[in-house]
Automatic annotation (TrEMBL), chains A, B:
Pathway: Amino-acid degradation; L-alanine degradation via transaminase pathway; pyruvate from L-alanine: step 1/1. GO terms for cellular component: cytoplasm. One of its GO terms (biological process) is L-alanine catabolic process. This is alanine transaminase. It holds the Pfam family Aminotran_1_2. Belongs to the class-I pyridoxal-phosphate-dependent aminotransferase family. Alanine aminotransferase subfamily. Its cofactor is pyridoxal 5'-phosphate. The keyword Transferase applies. The keyword Transferase applies.
Amino acid sequence: MHRFVSAAGRAAGRGPGSCCRGAGEEALRGAVGRPPRGVRLPREGTARWSSAAKASAVKISEKASREKILTLESMNPQVKAVEYAVRGPIAHKAGEIEKELRKGIKKPFTEVIKANIGDAHAMGQRPITFLRQVVALCTYPNLLDSPSFPEDAKKRARRILQGCGGNSLGAYTASQGINCIREDVASYIERRDGGVPADPDNIYLTTGASDGIASILKILVSGGGKSRTGVMIPIPQYPLYSAAISELDAIQVNYYLDEENCWSLDVNELRRSLNEAKGYCNPKVLCIINPGNPTGQVQSRKCIEDVIHFAWEEKLFLLADEVYQDNVYSEGCQFHSFKKILYEMGPEYSNNVELASFHSTSKGYMGECGYRGGYMEVLNLHPDIKGQLVKLLSVRLCPPVSGQAAMDIVVNPPVPGEESYSQFIKEKESVLNNLAKKAKMTEDMFNKVPGIHCNPLQGAMYAFPRIFMPSKAIEEAKAHKMAPDMFYCMKLLEETGICVVPGSGFGQREGTYHFRITILPQIDKLKILLEKVKDFHMKFLEKYA
Amino acid sequence: MHRFVSAAGRAAGRGPGSCCRGAGEEALRGAVGRPPRGVRLPREGTARWSSAAKASAVKISEKASREKILTLESMNPQVKAVEYAVRGPIAHKAGEIEKELRKGIKKPFTEVIKANIGDAHAMGQRPITFLRQVVALCTYPNLLDSPSFPEDAKKRARRILQGCGGNSLGAYTASQGINCIREDVASYIERRDGGVPADPDNIYLTTGASDGIASILKILVSGGGKSRTGVMIPIPQYPLYSAAISELDAIQVNYYLDEENCWSLDVNELRRSLNEAKGYCNPKVLCIINPGNPTGQVQSRKCIEDVIHFAWEEKLFLLADEVYQDNVYSEGCQFHSFKKILYEMGPEYSNNVELASFHSTSKGYMGECGYRGGYMEVLNLHPDIKGQLVKLLSVRLCPPVSGQAAMDIVVNPPVPGEESYSQFIKEKESVLNNLAKKAKMTEDMFNKVPGIHCNPLQGAMYAFPRIFMPSKAIEEAKAHKMAPDMFYCMKLLEETGICVVPGSGFGQREGTYHFRITILPQIDKLKILLEKVKDFHMKFLEKYA
């Protein structure tokens, strides 16, 4: 046996600029690797791969293929354990059905409606004009001379570009984000919170909120065995949390939201959950999602105080996921930031409680998911840890700069007196008013269906109705090795083309079943959608009665 | 003691939409938390935080502050172990000096020059017009009607938008990236590699190359103790690798590049390194950086064949970091992709070797770092693992969509006959020709300085010269608890304002010292920069002689 050198390789040899020393023939003696006979090796730069050669390669592939290095058995078991239902099996199935539709395969519907994800623009929502004008100006600064762009947009674009290396969106920024944008975020927080001070130094721009949440969790997790870090999360939760916890091999500590009381958070339940967890891990982190995803509740000021007090008392690091802060619809509900309440509770709290809160360009009225913009404000971080956090973020260099620019417009929109103000407000209010209408309509429609109960959609952009599952359906689901609500959602998808996410992907009390559906489709379309869900549900109940 | 409820909290109570149940007073008995006396708590929506109140809060902070939850002792030890020299202590110091300059503090220089990072636009390189036109059109589609944008740019923008949900950059894309862009990437790879087939299904768009590399490593790492995954990396390396390995608690297995032979890669050294590693871990991954960062060598075809054969023989998963594929300057050097050579070695290799290769929008001639665009092509992945990889990526939803659009233009630039072709080629060649000139100039200038030796900069965008350190300097560095080359680089920064990264941040053979400097500054500026480094070096040698 001798070492294999391809024809092309032999021809190439080592040129003057070659940067590889002799391969040490003696060390390689005994190595196998003769090329299978009959396979033409194209020469560099000349040969093209004919389709015959491709076919031949594929044919040999089947024979030659040997055991893989990376398999389900050898892979990272924590990654294997990750589940992310929002883009999980149901979304995968939706993709397959779409392909079938494109091939002309007949279905009882003509399109798949992806109500599984809060993706506003995909559902036809138009971008906020001002935001896109500013980002376009930053992208192609020649437009700064164009009379078709308003001055207030140009002013913001110039300011952002001045914060960029070489005045270009193409330069890396500081890992924490562009300074002037962090200043704008701080001003926004001060305005939002009635003047509670915010320090730009505590602001970190992120690649969507997900990136910030995962980074904070990453830095928090430590210990082994019973001293492994426990992370308290609501059930139902947004599955980014369970996924990050799994990736980090931390311990997921569930506390249950109270469905009977409009998905409210009860401090007694936090305490129960914490006390149990202390028996098997070191609970160190408490995650809150407000307004709730998938559950849509908006926390009262009193509840937030209780939670902060609990975290303070129990020495828990607080994570407040507040990406739906602009999405509050129900009368009597109001968004209160954890930061604001923390400060109002006095310095014993505001100087001590370690709190990270998160916001995003993806939700609200702008729905700019694709920009992957976001920020986090982190309070009372130990100065040493601040250095560690910046170091961790610096490995990924910086968040996408056009996402940073988009974030800037969310926190620094046109103000009264500016040229773009009226159009901006019109666009913003149109989106939010429509969402409020759709939230009410969805709740009402679901609650008219026998076997469906839906709590008020106080905020966010989803309904999470509870569905009654007949025992025959549960049995059939089990026979298919599926969670009963997964079985339900798969049937719904197959029969109507509507893609929603089963409650089991978010977590729910045992024996209860739900699904999450976004209310983002345009109002007429949403109405039809809900009617279809209703019809499907009635037939489902009938079939499995 | 009784439970603390702020004035504002008492006033607010629980409204009709309140979503928090009674906090269970009995459970909270015994909790402390009375607000410190004399601190005014502003009421919701009315009070502003006066500066006096702020000062008072700060003052009490010092008294009230108690032990943190998150400290250097309690944090994730793997994150603590991460080092990322490119944005490490030296970049931090540079930032401090910049602040001092802004304050008017006198220094022997007027500006800090950040030659520590490959950040083209920050160094004054202009963006490629066509790329920015397409991204601007995608951002603000009203511009599709503007006569000031060329038709070929509009055509590409329309195609990208058609691939986006709701025809908007603001929609999430598939986690693997927009289909038509992955198709363009596949076509690019086929053209680049002389017709070797590429399947869009094997392409994953990423948030810069870093994100792709970290994701693949994440999925690969498993085992504990002696069966922990070993990851072979070149020394010197780009510190993303050591950082990711540390974060994942994998085992870093060093193989040394041969400085005496122009930083070449010797398969005998790979074998030595692997055999040693087998004694303490399970080496499963081999990382290659070609063209080299920080070392600038370009691998010969022969060397790549040797490496592939070695990986095949030893069952190693190959990671080929090819982000500098457009940055090849030396005569006689040429970029060969691992993918292409793999196919030319025949199906025994091309059907078996598991290979992930990475590219980016950040380097090359475009230097669009801020867009965080990139892709990876992953070959011979087990189908189950493909599912696992997509699942892992889906937790972060999708790469930034404007970065995906930028990547599309890199792989699908104007072609002869198109309106923008001549300007595009002029801009591209101007950047690359300048880089080639600067590569040669830098090598020549360094090699004229006594005590500095610099290998040819065959590719990439850095020089990594070796510096002679007098023993007195080494002693003084040790007295300051610094690596000798860190000491050198800190002095260089303090005396000249030039920020470079010490070799110890990349790894180097014991007893050798280097620094990495980017050649991106404009040619006149680079010349002055190199003269300054030379003067500093001469004085340094003199001082510590």
